Amino acid sequence: MQVGNKYYESLWFDRDHPGEVRVINQRRLPWEFQIQIIDSLEEVYLAIREMTVRGAPVIGVLAAFGMYIDAYNHPDEAHLADRLDHAAEYLLSSRPTAVNLAYAVSEQQKIYHAISGHSAVTGALLRRALGMADTEKEACRLIGENGFPLIRELAEKKQGEPVNILTHCNAGWLATIDYGTALAPVYKAHKEGIPLHVWVDETRPRNQGARLTVWELKQAGIPYTLIADNAGGHLMQHGMVDIVLVGSDRTTRNGDVANKIGTYLKALAARDNHVPFYVALPVSTIDPALKDGKDIPIEKRAAKEIIEMEGMTGTKIQKVSIVPPDTPVMNYGFDVTPARLVTGLITEKGICQASEEGIRSILKY
Amino acid sequence: MQVGNKYYESLWFDRDHPGEVRVINQRRLPWEFQIQIIDSLEEVYLAIREMTVRGAPVIGVLAAFGMYIDAYNHPDEAHLADRLDHAAEYLLSSRPTAVNLAYAVSEQQKIYHAISGHSAVTGALLRRALGMADTEKEACRLIGENGFPLIRELAEKKQGEPVNILTHCNAGWLATIDYGTALAPVYKAHKEGIPLHVWVDETRPRNQGARLTVWELKQAGIPYTLIADNAGGHLMQHGMVDIVLVGSDRTTRNGDVANKIGTYLKALAARDNHVPFYVALPVSTIDPALKDGKDIPIEKRAAKEIIEMEGMTGTKIQKVSIVPPDTPVMNYGFDVTPARLVTGLITEKGICQASEEGIRSILKY
Question: Which pTM does this prediction carry?
Answer without folding.
Answer: 0.96
